[in-house]
């Protein structure tokens, strides 16, 4: 195995971990009132109306990042 292929695999593993972690955290903040309660506790409840502007694009980004990491892990097809 060449060094470049080892680095490619390590980078894919890291992308997958970041993508899955980001997807889970963003989904928890989108679909449960966790972030709204936390923001209310620290006095930032005025900003809860703007959360959708940030959380939905972030969720899409992390889902796409997970997809790219999974695609990079697939073995190459031989013709």
Can you walk me through this structure?
The protein has 3 helices and no strands. The chain has helices at residues 3-31, 34-41, 51-73. The protein is an all-alpha fold and 79 residues long.
Biggest sheet layout: none
Strand content: under 5%
H/E order of the elements?
HHH
- Quantity of strands, as a count: 0
Task: Please outline what is shown here.
The chain has 79 residues and is mostly helical. It has helices at 3-31, 34-41, 51-73. Helix 1 packs antiparallel against helix 3 (51-73).
Task: Label this structure with key terms.
76% helix
List the helices and strands and how they pair.
Blueprint: H1 3-31, H2 34-41, H3 51-73
Helix pairs in contact: 1-3
């Amino acid at each position: 195995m060449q060094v470049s292929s080892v680095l490619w695999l390590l980078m894919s593993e890291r992308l997958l971990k970041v993508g899955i972690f980001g997807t889970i955290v963003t989904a928890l903040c989108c679909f449960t009132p966790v972030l709204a309660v936390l923001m209310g506790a620290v006095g930032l409840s005025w900003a809860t109306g703007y959360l959708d502007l940030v959380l939905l694009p972030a969720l899409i980004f992390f889902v796409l990042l997970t997809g790219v990491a999974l695609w990079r892990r697939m073995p190459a097809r031989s013709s």
